[in-house]
Amino acid sequence: xxxxxxxxxxxxxxxxxxxxxxxxxxxxxxxxxxxxxxxxxxxxxxxxxxxxxxxxxxxxxxxxxxxxxxxxxxxxxxxxxxxxxxxxxxxxxxxxxxxxxxxxxxxxxxxxxxxxxxxxxxxxxxxxxxxxxxxxxxxxxxxxxxxxxxxxxxxxxxxxxxxxxxxxxxxxxxxxxxxxxxxxxxxxxxxxxxxxxxxxxxxxxxxxxxxxxxxxxxxxxxxxxxxxxxxxxxxxxxxxxxxxxxxxxxxxxxxxxxxxxxxxxxxxxxxxxxxxxxxxxxxxxxxxxxxxxxxxxxxxxxxxxxxxxxxxxxxxxxxxxxxxxxxxxxxxxxxxxxxxxxxxxxxxxxxxxxxxxx
Length: 358
What we know:
The protein is of the alpha/beta class. The protein is built from 13 helices and 13 strands. It has helices at about 15-25, 60-80, 90-95, 100-105, 125-135, 195-205, 220-230, 245-250, 265-270, 275-280, 295-300, 315-325, 325-355; strands spanning about 1-5, 30-35, 50, 85-90, 110-115, 140, 155-160, 180-185, 210-215, 235-240, 255, 285-290, 305. It has a 7-stranded parallel sheet with strand order 3-2-1-4-5-6-7, with helices on both faces. It has a 6-stranded parallel sheet with strand order 10-9-8-11-12-13, with helices on both faces. Helix 1 packs across helix 13 (about 325-355).
């Protein structure tokens, strides 16, 4: 029996499906242990078990630490009681919290899956993380950029945040006639308010652009109230959506708003977001933030542009960028990058199979 552990609500862990897909194909029994952090009643299969402990993100740090310790205690008890043969650890914090158990009892019998920058600037945290990487069956990362802050010299496997079901919806980029209104579309958890609101301010009530936000999130009300207060007429919020509807939601997108900046710059500096893959699959030029790995990636491939929201001519540059895109070069780049991603994704899935059958 294999145990899969994630320190949060599963809606924030879409990559879980990659593991369950392979486990099902290999007829391997498994159980999923997760933290129902929003405290919502959700129906999951019988082999999914949760700690139902509500813990809001803006909770006082002291209480958040206590909640994390409760999750740690619960997970350790579950592992001991269920006596798993192997473990799959989704996210850095999931691993660090139970590091001793993993290293002492599951050496080379766990996958360590890293999807974000955590607290690598803390020496103690970094050392624990390196120990986990060294003793894992394999460690995977969702961005090549992570190698900048992770321990050096380890054979990291690239684990792309890409959904195979989206491949069938692949689209070509077809540029609109010059002078058309451009739909700048955001899709996903609506957050990073301080940064996004600067983009909104640059494009608000500009008759060259429509702003559309698909998704929900803890900060959605902040966005809605801000737009009402400032009488922004060219912006629309559509709310929560089903992932199966993504194709319909993106069909009229001209520019994909894939621009993020957090108060802690390292949270986004080296990451590759899910929207990066949406842009490649659906043939949508991407707007990204500046001075990040993502900017260097999209500009090197010619599939997007990094713009600084502090620049007064932000809107003009975005509009001009779109109409200067070479359709053929753009589509060729998307196709080439997608083929590379598919090869790396296959290697990742094969590595999971190797782990299961070893």
